[in-house]
Design brief:
By secondary structure, the protein is an alpha/beta fold. The chain is built from 11 helices and 24 strands. It has a 10-stranded mixed beta sheet. Strands 3-4-5 form a 3-stranded antiparallel beta sheet, with no helix packed on it. Helix 1 crosses helix 2 and helix 4 packs across helix 5. It starts with 6 loop residues before the first strand and ends with a strand.
Length: about 475
Amino acid sequence: YGDPTLDTLVTDLYLGDQLIDRQSERFGFREFWISGSDFYLNGRHILLQGDVGTRWLDIPKACDVIFPLLRADGINIIRNHDGAHESPELFRTADRLGMLVYANMYPVLHEPGRDTLKNFIPYDEFLASPRHEFNLRNYRRWVETVRNHPSVVILSTDNEIFTQSWDTPAQEEFNIRNDRLGALYGQYVKTLDPDRVLTRNGDAGTWGFHEKWREEPPCETANYHYPDFNVNQVVLNWQTLFDFRPVIYGETLYYSYGAWDKWVGAIPKQVSDKAKRVREVASLYRKLKIPGQIYMGLSHDGFIQFDDTGKGNPWGIRASDHDAGKVPGRPGYPWVKIDWPSPSGAGAHLEFLRIDAKRGSMSALNWFDPAVPSHVRNAVNEAYRDALTPMPPLAPAPDAECLVKLGAAGAGKIVSVRTPFEIYGVVADRAGTAWLTLPEPGRYTLMAGGEVALPARSSHAALPGFNQIPTKE
């Protein structure tokens, strides 16, 4: 965390005296535990100051650019709420850079056609269904994906099993059945990974509505969503209310330019009002030492302002041009084509991406366009930086990368290098280009011939675009 140290475990398989296979696994050591109602990381008390994750968490380049921006304003943990649930790229990047992760997975709770109050599958019947078996297999796969990643300190097995919109007397039996299933899967995951802290997003309540059924024994953490709407009831007395368990406010300070505000966008007054509210609430959480504060936060409300100056986003898009749907120099806006150096290599490769100068910073952070800055700060950024406990900077990217260009005749060929631990290789694309990522900088010999000297990616990882990647012709 902050300055991570990773090791490599190498496993060799021999048949007699012949080496027939080798597997290497990057891993690290850390301790994270609960003491009383607090969290401790490597022997030190820590307040988790999180962000309900941005998009693109399965793209290493996006994480390289965005994570340092979040850390500079006090974020030390990412919750992957809306994506990248099983993507190893998020966890690998967090391991390398020293960002903590609050990993999310979700169960399937309904069969098609049996998902209403009148015909839902009862609890006992559901346990004999194929959906239940699928959920068990999926949770096992998920735990196997995250188990060697030291950045992953919290596992969450569901999200808002009941919400304020469902909390009616008519829904109570349905909600209780869903909550019982959520608790069952949480307990199952705890048997698979007993040392990691478990939470269930919104299990203690959301937006003023409280749980109708309580598992016994209760989950080791209490998780409540949007306590900022009921500060007197669920914040000021958090220790006694949640039985002296550590509380995680799994979502707080809801996204202020979106659905709940009629999609008004990041207009100057909205940005200013949100910054004021952030200072009030986040400062209170810090004063009360709330163990887990996961803000809907910077990846939604920071880094953007919508007006006719065009200065509130990296691309200089003015509000009037956005509203007209015609942005000079950007045909097809809000869609842009990503100029990947090659479709080979690690992570997802989106061909097109939607940018939006109005709704929120999730679509206004730039990790792909070298012609413009990665971000533009706004008043919300300053409010988080002022209110949150300062955090150590992330570690510089320790690995290396290069583009190997073989020409059209090299299409489909494997480009590889041998290291002391194993062989790293990638298949060249149709143009004969291979995007090769290696664990550390240095001089490498390509197995097909030739050498390449690679600097650490720290020299360019946090810059948008791909034009600084070393190239070997």
